[in-house]
Write a structure and sequence with these properties.
Two copies of one chain form a homodimer. The first copy, chain A, is built from eight helices and five strands. Chain A is of the alpha/beta class. The first copy, chain A, has a single domain, classed as 3-Layer(aba) Sandwich (Rossmann fold), CATH 3.40.50.620. The first copy, chain A, starts with a strand and ends with a helix. At the A-B interface, helix 4 and helix 5 of A face helix 4 and helix 5 of B.
């Protein structure tokens, strides 16, 4: 049976990955990280969608507050507003969590090895969010090689793969891909502030809003919140 | 100031790494993982030596019981005895923790990035313990590349390095290296069973005993336990 693990944070990109994987694999395992993120509401939203889709869901605890160095894991480091982000120096924004995707992929690889799974799917992309070193194609390829050298895959003919199908897509293209696959974005949250209702100020809200405008549709999350009388 | 992180489990190899690093770096940070290991006594022993040496010590929590698949993290999987290990099939022994060193190095890299540290030292070696895919030179090189691609090192001229100075040494050679550096092994524990007093049955005890015989000295841990009347 063709099995895979999807790194599923509950945001737009990984929600699309989940639907992308469901189209291509017979058994899709959702893997969510409870990593001490400010916006931990994404965890319950991710679990909710996995439950709705009837797919196995695992939440791994790894407290990256122990490392810090990011406004997502250290509340003393303020969240950047999008406009201010533009003025910042080169290099990753304060929302970059040091080597987060390396840590997540390493844990996913360990779990994949135990489960006998060869493919790990992630929604990394770079066009709309440059300066994150751990979402680039070069990183994905290097990490795949490290996993193939450091696990029992090094002894097997069948290697492990990290698939990042949206790595060169804009966020609006990713949404269009998801919509064509029937993706439900109404419980997908992106806001860094940690509330279900988007703050509309942080860089993540800004990018999401811009992407839905480019798609030419209203954000299903906003539509749901309006319907529920929450906004 | 030349700074480094040493992956310090408290065993023979990483104790030697610590002394190796102290000779070469101005500031050595000890990093120990509390990963749900059966033999968690190694954590307090590692902390004890770091304290004695007066070096900064960090213990990171990452519960690999969440992943399982190893007799070190899942007590339902029995520890192999050395003789039986010889009879086993090719491939890693039950004490292999899936991609453990990939997970540890990924976390170390994230922490190194926050601290502005470029060098990570580890005591990996393969001669006496083959079949562990995540202690091989090829893995170390691939993981170094993944870290350099997935962190801000990708933007800098100065890259990160993973140094594994003992990767091609036998355990007895590693001990000799440590003794020449003045290493104190009297609180270094290796036994997988989780007691301070070695079980003398598990594969780790066997390898340690054999190494000290090759060195031609009595194990300082045994000498200390005898002196304290514990054995």
């Amino acid at each position: 049976m063709k099995k895979c693990i999807v790194l599923f944070s509950g945001g737009i990109d990984s929600t699309t990955s989940l639907y992308w994987a469901l189209k291509r694999f017979e058994r899709v395992h959702s893997l969510t990280f409870d990593y001490g993120q400010r916006h931990r509401i994404e965890i319950s939203m991710a679990q909710r969608l996995a439950r709705k889709l009837g797919i196995p869901q695992k939440t791994l605890q790894i407290d990256l507050k122990q490392i810090g160095g990011s406004s997502l894991t250290d509340t003393k480091i303020p969240l950047p507003e999008y406009e201010k982000l533009e003025e910042m120096e080169e290099g990753p924004p304060p929302t970059y969590v040091p080597f987060r995707n390396g840590i997540f992929l390493a844990l996913a690889a360990g779990w994949a090895e135990v489960e006998g799974i060869k493919d790990i799917i992630c929604g990394f992309n770079i066009i709309d969010s440059p300066h994150y070193p751990d979402t680039r194609k070069q990183f994905v390829e290097a990490m795949e090689e490290a996993i193939n050298q450091g696990t029992t895959a090094s002894l097997n003919e069948q290697k492990m793969r990290i698939l990042a199908p949206f790595v060169k897509m804009k966020k609006s293209q990713i949404i269009k891909e998801g919509l064509s696959l029937g993706a439900d974005y109404s419980y997908s949250v992106s806001c860094y502030s940690g509330e279900e209702i988007p703050c509309q100020k942080c860089s993540s809200c800004f990018l999401r809003q811009k992407a839905w405008e480019e798609v030419g549709q209203r954000d299903p999350l906003i539509l749901r919140l309006e319907k529920e009388g929450k906004i």
